[in-house]
Amino acid sequence: MTANVTLQDVKRVAELAHLELTPTETESMQHDLNAILDHVAQLNELDTDSVAPLAQMSELAGAGSAGSLREDVVRPSLNRTAVMSEAPETDQVFFKVPKVIER
Predict the structure, then answer these.
(1) Average pLDDT over every residue of 22-49
(2) Percent of the chain clearing pLDDT 70 (strictly above)
(3) Cα–Cα distance for residue pair 85/76, rounded to 1 Å
(4) Is the pTM of this model over 0.85?
(5) In the prediction, which pLDDT does 2 show?
(6) Which residues cross the membrane (predicted)?
(7) SS3 letters for the chain?
(8) What share of the chain in percent tops pLDDT 90?
(9) Measured in Å, how far apart are the chain's first and last C-alpha atoms?
(10) Residue 46's Cα: distance from chain center in Å?
(11) CB-based burial of residue 13 (10 Å sphere; 0-12 exposed, 13-18 middle, 19+ buried)?
């Protein structure tokens, strides 16, 4: 099975994601998406009938034991005043950052 993401598909997704892609980037993205979908199609050919479904990776044998994950312990949060004093620009409640989305 060969995936068939078209240039129009890539342009539409880029538009929805507010991305401006050059023609070269659009073609590269088309190639990459088709490669990813081809790989997923290959994975779908695997026989997984004997594999138990998992909701989370922590359900795997050995995962979630005391050695693999840190203990879930309530700890005090960072001190806001100390954190804000290290920020380049703040209003003492939030970090101020440059606007990154133009619309």
Answers:
(1) 95
(2) 85
(3) 18
(4) no
(5) 67
(6) none
(7) CCCCCCHHHHHHHHHHCCCCCCHHHHHHHHHHHHHHHHHHHHHHCCCCCCCCCCCCHHHCCCCCCCCCCCCCCCCCCCCHHHHHHHCCCECCCCECCCCCCCC
(8) 68
(9) 39
(10) 25
(11) middle
| Whether the Cβ atoms of residue 63 and residue 29 lie closer than 8 Å to each other | no
Instruction: Say how far apart CA 89 and CA 99 lie, in whole Å.
Output: 13
Backbone φ and ψ for 3, nearest 5 degrees, come out as: -70, 150
d(CA 93, CA 77): 15
The phi, psi pair for 50, rounded to 5°, reads -95, 5
Scan for tokens 């034991």, then name that residue.
65
CA–CA dist 19, 28 (Å, integer): 14
> Can you tell me which residue has the tokens 């023609």?
23
